[in-house]
């Protein structure tokens, strides 16, 4: 037990990322049933859809689960009210300032963790009263920080400015990586890419298979003028890179992005013209195949245990 497992009431300090078009009730409940903390990804759900997924998740697991809410969500008031009305006890906020909503959520008995990309924002999150922070490095897929700080640099920087329970994210897909961030001061991990490519993820199998054959350098952080996101090589990314190379402004990039581009790629499986978001660590999973959540969780826990044992045996001779 540590502060993260105690805070959320879970067996292992492993949190599943609340990823758009991947994190439905099947994925969240499977992670929670396997001993971690599953999160529903509200960022790609209409309010009524989120309510449905909360109810289905509660039917599928008796363990703790939560909701990830991007604070830039256009119907944020309605989403927050649904979470409160449905009795959700854990919320992870991201993509915005937690100052407005943390007190509101606390008043309704909800635990709040906030995702940050810098030590500066970690300090701001602590001032806002959050219960835990997630330090997400540059390696992550999805929405990312413009600072481009890697996880191994970000985690100790955040640990230095806050005493809150600290969760590391970005580039974590193995037990060895869990041990590495633990050594840097993290008390838990948030895993996105590895869970996005499981059988229970709501992403299309075409997206999963494509991402499981990526190699080093096949993802790149782009769209910084809009909202930084790590994109997989395909026709759409080629168009984004060409536009940015010629100095496209924010409005021009928004027109290129259009509406529903992430859904087209991740959920509907248009590998060429969709917006494909995945973390750098996907290259380590090349050829691994689509696994179940339970298999992934077992691997993470066993790898972490073996890594700890190796270092305890090696002592100073590593």
Automatic annotation (TrEMBL):
Gene3D superfamilies: Aldolase class I (3.20.20.70). The keyword Disulfide bond does not apply. It holds the Pfam family NMO. One of its GO terms (molecular function) is dioxygenase activity. SUPFAM superfamilies: Inosine monophosphate dehydrogenase (IMPDH). InterPro entries: Aldolase_TIM, NMO. This is 2-nitropropane dioxygenase NPD. It comes from Bacteroides helcogenes (strain ATCC 35417 / DSM 20613 / JCM 6297 / CCUG 15421 / P 36-108). The lineage of its organism: Bacteria, Pseudomonadati, Bacteroidota, Bacteroidia, Bacteroidales.
């Amino acid at each position: 037990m540590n502060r993260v497992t105690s805070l959320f009431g879970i067996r292992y300090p492993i949190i599943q990322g609340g990823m758009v078009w991947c994190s439905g009730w099947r994925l969240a409940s499977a992670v929670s049933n396997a001993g971690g903390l599953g999160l529903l990804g509200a960022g790609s759900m209409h309010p009524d859809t989120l309510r449905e997924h909360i109810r289905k998740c509660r039917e599928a697991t008796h363990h703790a689960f939560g909701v990830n809410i991007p604070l830039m969500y256009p119907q944020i008031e309605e989403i927050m009210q649904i979470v409160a009305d449905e009795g959700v006890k854990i919320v992870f906020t991201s993509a915005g300032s937690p100052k407005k909503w943390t007190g509101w959520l606390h008043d309704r008995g909800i635990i709040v963790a906030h995702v940050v990309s810098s030590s500066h924002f970690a300090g701001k999150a602590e001032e806002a009263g959050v219960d835990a922070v997630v330090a997400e490095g540059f390696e992550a897929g999805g929405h990312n920080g413009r600072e481009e700080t890697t996880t191994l640099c970000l985690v100790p920087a955040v640990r230095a400015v806050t005493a809150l329970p600290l969760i590391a994210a970005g580039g974590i897909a193995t037990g060895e990586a869990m041990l590495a961030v633990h050594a840097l001061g993290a008390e838990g991990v948030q895993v996105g890419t590895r869970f996005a490519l499981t059988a229970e993820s709501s992403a299309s199998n075409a997206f999963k298979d494509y991402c499981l054959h990526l190699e080093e350098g096949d993802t790149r952080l782009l769209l910084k003028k809009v909202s930084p996101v790590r994109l997989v090589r395909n026709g759409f990314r080629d168009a984004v890179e060409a536009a940015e190379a010629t100095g496209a402004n924010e409005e021009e990039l928004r027109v290129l992005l259009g509406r529903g581009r992430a859904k087209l790629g991740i959920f509907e499986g248009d590998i060429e013209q969709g917006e494909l978001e995945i973390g750098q660590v996907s290259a380590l999973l090349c050829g691994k195949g689509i696994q179940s959540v339970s298999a992934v969780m077992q691997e993470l826990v066993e790898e972490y245990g073996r890594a700890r044992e190796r270092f305890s045996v090696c002592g100073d001779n590593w």
